[in-house]
Structures are given as structure tokens and as C-alpha cells.
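tool=predict chain=A
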Amino acid sequence: MTTLFLSQPTTVSPGQGAPPAPAPAQPSQGAPTQTPEGGGGGGQPFGGMTILFFLLPLLFVFLMTRNQSKKQKELEAALKPGDKVVTQSGLIGKLIEVGDRTVKLEIAPGVNVQVLKAAIQGVDGEPKPAAEAKDKAQEKKA
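tool=predict ok
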């Protein structure tokens, strides 16, 4: 009679014939189990899809905020006295002084306010090309 150990292979001596059928082995705790459907999921219902559902939006948000902060830093670096700017609160004015963190903005003759550079939305560009186009159109008619 041969003793069967699950971790050792059975050997057949020459002349003994076919080996006895091994008993169905119980899987060890660390071994992955296979489902009868052949899914082989191993306990994860969606596989790697759940990781993608969390990582892709995080990556998207990271890239968007990185681009936005880069544009804001470029804007702050390009500010110089005399520029006409718009703040996030909607104030439109002319830059008088530009400091490290703040700028002095003239919003009306004799009315100066101090705002953070980060509060500046952008440089206010007046629609000069539209006015020039109207002038050219009137010159052609004359």
C-alpha cells in the first residue's frame, strides 16, 4: 500500500501497472480557486476595471489643475505697470505697482486698491481689431 502526500509526486514501480487515481486535493489557502464557469476572477468582480475607474479621473483632475496653475503663474510673471487687467471679482483697472504677492490697481481716477496677484483673471484686451474693421469698411464706402 502506498501512502499519498499532497506535496510529493507518486511514482510507479516497473511492472506494477497503472497508478491508483489520486484523490481530489483540497486547495491550499494561498492558491487561487478556479470557478466552474472558467472566469478565473480570483475574488475581484470586475478585475482591473475598478482600479481604472478610480485612477483615470484622478489623473484627469491632476493634469487639469497642473495646466491651470501653470497658466496662472505665466500670467502673474507677465504683469507690468500700465497693463489693463480684470480681477476675479470683475474689477477692471490699470496696474500702478507690481509687488511679489500683490499689485496696486487703479479702478477709477484717484482710487487705488491692492489685490493679490492670484486674483487677477487676465489682461483686458479691448476689441481693437473690430474697431479697425469698421473704419476700413467706412473708408471703402467713401
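The first helix runs from residue 49 to 78. The chain has a mean pLDDT of 75.
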